[in-house]
Specification:
mainly alpha; 9 helices; 0% strand; carbohydrate metabolism; glycosidase; Lysozyme-like_dom_sf
Length: 154
Amino acid sequence: MALCTWKEIFRTRPNPNFTCLITCILTFQNNNYNYGPCGRAIGVDLLNNPDLVATDPVISFKTTIWFWMTPQSPKPSCHDVIIGRWNPSSGDRSANRLPGFGVITNIINGGLECGCGNDNRVQDRIGFYWRYCGILGVSTGDNLDCGNQRSFGS
């Protein structure tokens, strides 16, 4: 399976596709960590057939939804964060993890992008978020950046 990088998605592809995006998300999370739980949840053996995420559009969509909706302790689900259902613990607050888009970046790729100050990858992601919020006519909310957050794994 040919894996993509965030640079590939957000800088060299004007219209990144979900297949590449979710393949990166599932892969970046500790190698095959997510393939087992996600595969069990959607009823597909992704550990032995990881290419299905990149080659089957229905499985790609299912894995995207699974990742968005599923908390993975100590991380909340992206969905709970974006709809305001997540309440940070005292440990989260001391790590500067406050409700907002920055925590979603932390959930997805915090070990690589968060706690690094001003990171171009994060700024690119925020730019896309601003753009799509504008198109949809919704507020971006607060706490868009994760530069001052400790990752969930630290």
